[in-house]
Amino acid sequence: MIQLENISKQYKTANGSLTAVDQVDLSIRDKEIFGIIGYSGAGKSTMIRLLNGLEKPTSGKVTVNDVIISEASGKALRNARHDISMVFQHFNILWSRTVEENIAFPLEIAGVKKAERQKRVLELIQLVGLEGREKAYPSQLSGGQKQRVGIARALANNPKVLLCDEATSALDPETTDAILDLLVNINEKLGLTIVLITHEMHVIRKICHRVAVMEKGKVVEQGDVLDVFQNPQAPITKRFVSQISDSGTQKDSIAQMVAEYNQGKLIKLFFVGAQAEQPVITELIRTFAVDVNIVHGNISPTKSGPYGTLIVQLTGADQDLSDAIAYLNEKGIKSEVVSDVD
Ligand SMILES: Nc1ncnc2c1ncn2[C@@H]1O[C@H](COP(=O)(O)OP(=O)(O)OP(=O)(O)O)[C@@H](O)[C@H]1O
Ligand SMILES: [Mg+2]
Prior knowledge:
Blueprint: E1 2-13, E2 16-28, E3 33-37, H1 44-51, E4 59-64, E5 67-68, H2 74-82, E6 84-88, H3 99-109, H4 114-128, H5 143-155, E7 161-165, H6 173-190, E8 193-198, H7 201-207, E9 210-215, E10 218-224, H8 225-230, H9 235-245, H10 251-260, E11 265-272, H11 277-287, E12 290-302, E13 305-316, H12 318-330, E14 334-340
Parallel strand pairs: 3-8, 3-9, 6-7, 7-8
Antiparallel strand pairs: 1-2, 1-4, 4-5, 9-10, 11-13, 11-14, 12-13
The structure holds adenosine-5'-triphosphate and magnesium ion.
């Protein structure tokens, strides 16, 4: 477990003292994927560096796997760091070494014998999906492949915790997804705790179990990803959540839908967690004398079930329409009438 207790970090700058992390309390469970999201300058990188002792807090206590990192130094800190690895936005690889030499590097430093090293490098190459690229130099690799090398290096000495500082921020959306899939795979296969920093809600949505939102050094909100998505409290969290839920349903596109689907009722359904959208719609059509026309959908999977909205056009007699809506509400699906034109 990782625990931050009343952590503050101040830097001395030419203009006086700057508070990068401000009275943060946080606990991260073993084997979970924990996301920290915030805009630039929020204090995310500072916070993650406190977790591996690269920075010492000005006040407060950091504990990782029962070791008080904030107080450890010398050999004790080096030992604790063996269990805490890090992946960076710009890959942190050695340009003069091939893929396999890069991955072998942390093993050489740890004094692992050659035969064992070769065996481990092979395993890691397979784990991160770099078969066939063993002899390539970093300049011959794509961004996604470079990050796979970075991840393999970070995993070489079997850490218990993997810290990822914007590990996908330099990658295009498709490559980002592939690297996120790899992180999930590693989390499940190796039972690794992953702490991941990002400014993209998509990343949180796709792979995190829980999330903390940072603003100006403070954690302004934290919780299960679905709870935070469903019921964001802080204004900044609402802004992040709208990054994924409102895309494509901005005001003018809604006006366009209302004009186009001008019969019956246009209804926005909110899916959060357990219910899957398809069976519910199928049941609705079977049970009630209504027609359902799907107009717009924006539902994405999260670690704890689907999240998103579906805009549907319902047509039928008034009584049937109200029965159908009551049925949806009973199923725990919130609904909102977008238009009511007859
Ligand atoms: N070594 C340092 N000395 C002085 N100030 C620092 C230092 N490191 C970070 N800061 C300041 O602390 C604040 C938080 O920085 P940090 O790098 O943690 O933010 P971040 O959330 O990671 O931002 P980004 O998304 O841009 O990476 C910033 O105002 C930054 O200028
Ligand atoms: Mg940063």
